[in-house]
Design goal:
Helix content: 10-25%
Oligomer: single chain
Shape: globular
C-alpha cells in the first residue's frame, strides 16, 4: 500500500465523536448522548431503537431538534449556536444496508466518486489502494447491477474509504448479505481500521457481530442509551437481558487454513494458538476465513473427554461466569477467546468459577466457514 500523508497517520487526540441529540419522529423520540473513541464503536439495539436515526443525525441527513454533535473536536451541529454543516462538509463516509451504489456508474466510477470530491491535500488513500484493500481489481469495469451482495458491500466500503473520511458510519452492513459473505466483510472492516486508523461507528442488531468487531458498544432501547462499555461487559450486563438475542449468539473468529486433509472433507484451522478441524472449507492453505460457532454448540467438560466422535477438544481457562436468567454465559480462553453457553443446572453440577480449567468440545459440523474461498 502506498504511503499516506503524515496527517493521515497522526494519532488522533480526544474523542472521534461526541453527541447529545434529541430528535422526534412521530411518536418516537431519540434522546441520547455519548462519546466515542477512535476505534470501532458499535451501536447496538433491536429494530426501532433509534440506531439509524442517530447515524443520520451524525451524517447530516437528518436535522436534530436539539443538541450538539462534534467530530474530532469540530462542531458540525449545534442548536444553541445555529450550526448545521451539510453532509458534504462533515467528511463522513456512510455505508448503508443496501450499499446504495450509483446504478449508472461502473464499479470504478463509484469508487472514484468520493475521491474526486476530496481535496488532494486531504486524501489519505488512493483509489488504487482502496481497490487493492477490498480485492476489487477484477470487477472495476463491471456495472453494479450484476454484483453479488458481498461484492456490492465491498464496493460501497471502497467508495467510502477512497473519500478519506474523518469518520466512517456503517448501518447494518451485513444485514443484506448471504451468510457466506459476512466474515469477509467483517475482516475487510477490521483491516481498513487497522491500516487507515479511521474511526468507525458500526450499527447492528446482532450482538455476535458487535463482539467480533467492536472495541466499545452503546446499547439503545426506545431511543435512549441503556449501557455503554466494552462488548464483553455489555453482553452480560443485566440491563441487556431484554435487548440481546442470546439464542443466536455466535463466536465469529478469524482463522487461517493450516492444511486440507487428504480425504478432502476437512480442513485444519489455526485460531489464535488453537487448532480446529472444520468441514466444508473451500479456502486453501494460507488463506484466511472467518468461522462461526454457536455458543450453545460448545460442550463444556471438567475432564478430558475420551472415546467421543467430536474431533475438537480445546483446553482453556474460565475467565468469567455470568448467569443470565435461564442461560449461563462462560468466557473461556482456549488459545482463542470463546463464549460458551450452559444451563444453570450444568453450572451447579460442574461447580465452575473464574480460573477453573475446562475442556471445550466442538463438533466439526458445528463450525461454519462464513466466507468459503473468499480472501
Amino acid at each position: 500500500m502506498r504511503a499516506r500523508p503524515p496527517a493521515a497517520n497522526a494519532a488522533r487526540a480526544g474523542p472521534a465523536l461526541t453527541f447529545d441529540v434529541v430528535k422526534r419522529l412521530g411518536g418516537f423520540e431519540l434522546r441520547c448522548s455519548a462519546e466515542f473513541g477512535g476505534g470501532i464503536t458499535a451501536v447496538f439495539g433491536p429494530s426501532g431503537s433509534g440506531k439509524t436515526t442517530l447515524l443520520n443525525c451524525v451524517a447530516g441527513l437528518t436535522k436534530p431538534d436539539d443538541g450538539e454533535i462534534a467530530i474530532l473536536g469540530a462542531t458540525v451541529y449545534s442548536a444553541s449556536r445555529r450550526v448545521n454543516l451539510p453532509p458534504e462538509r462533515r467528511r463522513i463516509g456512510y455505508v448503508f444496508q443496501d450499499s446504495a451504489l450509483f446504478p449508472h456508474m461502473s464499479v470504478m466510477d463509484n469508487i472514484r466518486y468520493g475521491h474526486r470530491l476530496t481535496p488532494e491535500s486531504e486524501r489519505a488513500l488512493s483509489v488504487e489502494d482502496a481497490v487493492e484493500m477490498l480485492h476489487l481489481t477484477g470487477l472495476l469495469d463491471r456495472g453494479t447491477e450484476g454484483l453479488s451482495g458481498g461484492e456490492r458491500q465491498r464496493v460501497a466500503l471502497a467508495r467510502a474509504l477512497a473519500a478519506s473520511p474523518r469518520l466512517l458510519l456503517l448501518d447494518e452492513p451485513l444485514s443484506s448479505l448471504d451468510l457466506a459473505f459476512r466474515g469477509m466483510v467483517l475482516r475487510h472492516l477490521r483491516q481498513a481500521h487497522s491500516e487507515l486508523g479511521v474511526p468507525m461507528v458500526y450499527v447492528s442488531h446482532s450482538m455476535s457481530e458487535v463482539m467480533a468487531i467492536a472495541d466499545d458498544a452503546l446499547a439503545l432501547s426506545d431511543g435512549a442509551s441503556v449501557i455503554q462499555g466494552p462488548p464483553r461487559a455489555a453482553l452480560v450486563d443485566p440491563r441487556m437481558s431484554g435487548l440481546a438475542d442470546y439464542a443466536t449468539l455466535e463466536n465469529l473468529l478469524d482463522a487461517e487454513v493450516a492444511r486440507k486433509l487428504p480425504d478432502g472433507g476437512q480442513a485444519e484451522l489455526r485460531v489464535g494458538s488453537a487448532r480446529l478441524f472444520a468441514l466444508n472449507v473451500e479456502a486453501e492453505p494460507g488463506e484466511r476465513v472467518t468461522i462461526a460457532i454457536r455458543s450453545s454448540d460448545i460442550l463444556v467438560a471438567l475432564d478430558v473427554p475420551t472415546r467421543i466422535s467430536a474431533q475438537n477438544v480445546l483446553t482453556g481457562t474460565v475467565e468469567d461466569v455470568h448467569v443470565q436468567g435461564r442461560r449461563v454465559i462462560l468466557y473461556v480462553d482456549a488459545g482463542a477467546r470463546m463464549i460458551a453457553e450452559i444451563t444453570p443446572d450444568a453450572l451447579r453440577a460442574l461447580g465452575l468459577s473464574a480460573g477453573d480449567q475446562v475442556h471445550l468440545v466442538i463438533k466439526s459440523a458445528s463450525i461454519m466457514a462464513l466466507d468459503p474461498g473468499a480472501r
